[in-house]
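#data-curation
PF: Archiving a pair of folding outputs for the training set. Convention for this channel: one message per protein, sequence first, structure tokens after, nothing in between. First:
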Amino acid sequence: MSAALPRSAAGDRSPWLIATIVSLATFMEVLDTTIANVALRHMAGGVGASQDESTWILTTYLVTNAIVLPVSGYLATIFGRKRFYMGCVALFTIASLGCALSPNLPMLLCFRALQGIGGGGLAPVEQSILADTFPPEKRGQAFALYGLTVVTAPAIGPALGGWITDNYSWHWIFLINLPVGALSIFLVSVFVREPEAVKEDQRKFRAEGGGIDWVGFGLAAMALGSLQVVLDRAVIDDGFWSPLVTWLTVACVLGFVALIPWERRQQRPAVDVRLFGHRSFLAASLIMFIVAFSLFSTTQLLPQLTQDLMGYDATTAELTLAVGGLATFIMPIAGKIVGPVQPRWIILCAMVWSGFALLYATRLTLGMSFWDVSTMRILQVVALPFLFVPITTAAYVGLPPDKTNDASALINLMRNLGASVGIAVMNAVVVRGSQFHQARLTESASDYNPLWTERLAQTEAALRQSGVSAAEAPAAALAQMAGQVQAQAQALSYIDAFWLLGVAVLTLWPLVFLMRSLPKGTQASGH
């Protein structure tokens, strides 16, 4: 199969071997990211950082990762796809060692930034290799194998991170990357081939006198770096009341306003925004944004919900995600049906399912159990394979053969932006919604409300029967009722968040009709 594809990285070897090898590094990178989120407090204590300062351990990685993502395809063309990929794996692995050995916060942030640079180039190049190594009718299965590693890592990462930090130390969340990174570099160097057609792209770029698009790099870094910091700090720093958030928002807007027209005029742009002119790629990118928006925001919300409303510790809260993650093992089924069934119809059905699954989550109550929450997650995640695989497959249909690197970079950028925007927006919805609902519920907590006075009297009587003195019972009853009001307000704010997500997903399903049909039995243009 690979011999018929001039851009295949398999050569005379099995393309499935190549797919397995290139999935290894992304599994390491995604796993490390989820583990780091769990171990954040331990890392902060180890380097003497405050709780507020500790968030920069995550933000620094996300900023540099966001900057590298859209230009990774461009860099892969300049340096060579295989060489660039191995360099990213090596940088991520060496930076992991630096993180583990960091004695203070500035050094840890420096190595986390390097980790973000290395990690940002992995997924786009891997997907470009898969798109070039498999014909259109087989890409669904290839992306299913790749997707299985990507979604398995977040499922096991939180539990693994908690176990490592509880039984060893936070340093080991970075040290475990060393053998995986070394193995990945060895396997890629031995088995992954740099096809002649890809080398020709590099020679053509140099022959045309292509220099590095420094202006494009700078504008992308300014726009995306500022956006990532704003999204990460807006709720923490009280939005636009913070000068940092305000000025970075201005920098983000100016960066995007200047970036798009500049890159449209470049023959070899650092960020090829002209790809969004392809109808199918634009639709796939927008749907990927929505999918990531809903998936990652709920990944953030569910553990918060179980800790805030159900009193779970962090490990038990994360287990609700791990149970839901088991549903992603149907990923190979999604890969099998892409090809016989057009991606747009699979995506349409999966979006409708996902939207109603999110609306189902609005049924949450203060009396829900662990399995109630896990069921909410399973119903949502079971649609993920039937979104991720066909979206990624459909994104490359009709694109020129030398644009897979750039397309992979942009589709991954849309996924990361969706995740970042989703987490920031939904956190704001929960915070502001909790305040709104608490204010409304408090209006009913009045002596003029017979339901309130009756419930308060019942609570006071129950406390007296449990041994609380008559003098202390009124204050204790009032405090208990206030706690119930606050909990109910938080529950209503989470319901608002799930309702908004469900409506958003169900409203945007018409985007699937912008997608082009996947060729049956023939190769798409350029592949």
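PF: Second:
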Amino acid sequence: MTKPERSGKGTFSSLQLPVAARYLWPSSGRRLLLLSMLIAVLLLALVSFDFFFRQGRWVSGGPLSSAHAFLQDDCAACHVGFAKVDNAQCSVCHEKYGDELGAYSFATHYLYRSGDVERRGEAAEEVTCAQCHREHGGRQAALSRVEDGRCETCHFASFIGDHPAFEAVRQVDSAGLEFAHGHHVLEVMERLETVDQEQACLACHHADSRGQGFEPIDFDLHCGSCHLGGAVATPRLPLASGDDIGVATLAAIRGRGDASSQWAWSANPHELRTVGRRISKTPVHHRDPWILDNLRQLRRRLYPDAGLADLLIASPEVPATQTRLLYEEALDTLEMYAKGLQGRSEAEVHAELEIIESWLAVLRRELHDPQAPLDENAFLLSLGEVDAALSSTEVEEIKSLVGELTQACTSCHLLERASVQRVQKDQQAFRRAEFDHRAHVIERRCVDCHYAIAIPAADEEATKDPALDNAGIQNLPDINVCQDCHRPEMATDACVTCHFFHPDKQRHAALLLYR
């Protein structure tokens, strides 16, 4: 009997079960496996060639923006291994060397645009630079144009949907003035012989050079033609004598001979008239030096520890975001004092000039050093506490004299602690957003959006709330006025249309790489 031909089967397991070799190594599977291995080797070769000879250009996400084009062939400048870009890599170029302020930190982004120091500080939800500013979008990509999706991960979903209204910024405090728009608009319309309210508004609200906002209101330009004419005078005020409460004559002020009295030598003595023990002044000028000097002396009696507040024209009470304004005003005053004393030979004048120069050095150093803390407490009036050595009768007498002395001023200005309240002259309403009037004036008139103030026609009565008509009102429209146009099918409603948190380009000089 012939032996059966062997089929080429192998064995499988300890039981020596027969199995065909082609089951373990199918011919079709061999081809697929070999092809996969070949492709893997080719890919590895391409990646290696790109990494070592092409600096990763073949596997990058796309061309870098124009600002980072010089890093196109240097992936390692931003990417450590295959990890995402972190803030440390960005700070190598974008932060000043050794800068502890974190000029481009997430928290400081708020500070640059809003000026709100209370918003600066580390936040638990802080994100990295690269999470908002996405690269590899091409040379024309703008890194500051953050996609809405990035904003919506932390904020509301859309401008049309649940964007907050403008109520939080619609009205602020009194802005330091007694002022009614309605009355003034009607007066200007009559003077211009027009019935166009918008023309009357633009008589005072002058566009800035960019057309985006407005220049600050200026007394000489906008108010002086109507207010403080040549006939305006102070009441007859009691003269100071010894410890008696009163005001000083021009001669008495000149006799002080200190730095703050230098203005008196160029003042017109004929504007002051003395009758018996009383004196009056005609006319009263805006920021009248005689009134401000006497007001300063009366304030010193109420608040003897006035600190740097004596160097200010108006009240030292400002928001923390405007402390720099106080320092700048104090610096201007000291420089004026120093200029007036230079060239005099008296020993006491030289001593006072040395004190002024030392204060000037301190203020200049603090103003020009971005890391120097500016302390608004240096301008406080004894923390608001009246001198305990004064009797209640003396306090009331001084306050009454302050009211009489500033009678011509208080027709517009408010007083606080024997100081003229600081006027909010700018028209900025938003601190966390920006608005470009220039882009809107071809579509809407001023009064189409700014309609909250009650300004009736000459023969009508106001129908809106008259309480809204004051100097502090921002007169912002309702948010639905903006939403009429800014919607997906019309004008852009992207977050970065209004919100720019990147440091202001006008401040780039303070953001140099090295210091």
